[in-house]
Amino acid sequence: ENFKPAQVLDSLKASSNHLALNRKLHFSIAKDDNVNFEIDSLTGDLYLSKELDYETDSHFLLQVIIKNCNNPPQNSTVFLSIDVEDKNDHSPHFQDDFVVIGIEENVPVGTLVYTFNAKDGDGGFLNSKIEYSLEISNTGENPFLIHPLYGTLTTASPLDREITHSVILTVFAEDQAINLTDRRLDSLAVKIVILDINDNSPSFMSSPLSYVMEDVEVGFLVHHIVARDPDEGRNGQVTYHILSGNENKAFVLDKITGLLTTAQFLDREIQDRYSLTVMALDDGSPALSATQVLTIIVLDVNDEAPGFLKQLYETAVHENRDPGEFVIRVEAVDRDAGPNSLLQYEILPGAGYEKFKMNSDSGELVTAASLDRETQDIFSIKGSSCHDLGSPSRSSTAQLYLTVLDENDHNPLFAKTQYQISVTEDLEEGSAILDLSASDEDAGLNGKVMFSLIDDTYGAFAINSVTGSIVTTKALDRETKSQYTFRAVASDCSTHFPRSTTVMTVLLQDVNDNTPKFEQSYYKASIWEGQSPKTDIIQVFAADLDSGLNGETEYSIVSGNENATFLIDSARGILATNTGLDYENTSSYRFLVLLASDRGTPSLNSTATVLITVLDVNDNPPVFSSPEYHVHVKESIPIGSNITEVSAKDCDAGTNAEITYAIISGNDRGHFCLDGRTGSVNLTKTLDYEDTVKFTLVIQAT
């Protein structure tokens, strides 16, 4: 667009044009298109007639008419498109030279503050493209950030008006021409005022502690409460209020000045301190506040007389103690404080007061001499005085009543030094077996006797500590333990526990409470048959833990002996035969039941079963099933053939009944053989009827 007028832009004359063959052409621009351009009618050179402005027209379309000089003339039309290139000839510019912006201090980071909009008159993209930047006027931290393309100014960090009231910035707008030297810029001064938000609570500057004498007049200035609020305007205006601790309306607080004064008379003895919760409140919206606990200490004036906690002090003291024995501590209270409350004690003269002395500081009364209860058992001292150290001093009195206690110089004594008693073992738990008695010549607790047991009774006995009654604590069993020996103690209830002892021996008498018990509930025994009567078979034993007749055991047979085959020694438990036994008749006696009975009343018993096995004796010979065997055979039967079988039976048992067969005669020539175990007779030689018609074999079974 900065091309100068009268300079040739281009030439339209060309040899390729079919009108140029004649070489005589005429060039012209359509009259509506020749405002900014001219063309040489003969040469076709195109000229700029006036300066161009890209921002006004960036494109032209020219209609060029070309004619020749032939007859008839010929012409043609050419459209010429011309683009105007932009020149960076405009600077960016802001609408204002100075901008003042207000923003509240509590906005979050990233809040939009302002949008800058600079304009650039250039038409090219880069020549009119604007980038923004900023500078802060001082060296402090810049809490703002500008977007380089959009010109938006935002907060980059939290704002605080109490630290920074305002910020001065310079904002720059620069175009982006390709050549850095061609770039243009403009600037704008910006003042950002940070607006106050009520974000600070008042802060107390005054002390939380104050002192005041208890006798000041109403309206006396006690304390000046001061609080500061860094906010401005109404946000920083503070008023004062009492929230709590002033329920009795003792004080008045001026809400504007913060002056705290008394509203009534004070009494330190009623209330020696006040804890006022004071609030400082600003005038912001919403209002912020702070609280402080203001402690007001009321200082003492000596306006109270000391007073004993009791007007009559009663106590007791032991006789025969060395001088200096503590008796009692009297105590008075003075509601004043400091020296006004420090007290001094003394005994006023009276009957017997010389036997005591009092510590003037602590009020402790001690003996000045050893006391004798038999001489004087009561002391009534009518004057115990105290006074404070205030100015002027104040005082009061109280009375002492002292009782001399008896010395525990006697031991309790049992009526006997030892006891022996017998009891039956079937006593129920909790049964009393003996009531012990002991006496103590002392008085009061010194003479009150308490009973206890000090030896192990195996949990069988206990004693009533008051009555001395000895009782059983579990069921007794003579068979477990037949005698108990332990000591009983009689002691008084004094702190030194003087005591005496007696020895207890408890003998348990037997009760028939145990059944005789066989060593086994099932016995096994054996005996050979054929034994003579009264042969011992087995001795059984039943134990009875009782003693005397209760433990003496007698034995008998209660069943299984219907034929009186057996008998038993009632004292020794020896089981014997009563008749001869025959194995072949009865081989065992399975249900012989024995009874063991004691001689107690009533008698107790138990039973046991005995299995008696009769052992076999070889007293029976084998007996053949037939005394003679007749066999007929043919002479032609082959060797090895079975001729016959003989059999015999034996009534004995075991090996006594095992039978062996043998040929004892008639087989001299060896025609037959006999199986000794089975009794089978077999042929061993060929028979010949013509030789021998009959064989008589004698076979023995053993």
Automatic annotation (TrEMBL):
Keywords on record: Calcium, Cell adhesion, Disulfide bond, EGF-like domain, Glycoprotein, Membrane, Repeat, Signal, Transmembrane, Transmembrane helix
Subcellular location: Membrane
Main location group: membrane
Gene3D superfamilies membership: Cadherins (2.60.40.60)
One annotated GO biological process: heart morphogenesis
InterPro entries tied to this protein: Cadherin-like_dom (IPR002126), Cadherin-like_sf (IPR015919), Cadherin_CS (IPR020894)
GO cellular component labels: plasma membrane
Pfam families the record matches: Cadherin (PF00028)
GO molecular function: calcium ion binding
Positions of the Cadherin domain: 1-94, 103-204, 212-308, 309-414, 415-518, 519-624, 625-702
Name of protein: PCD23 protein
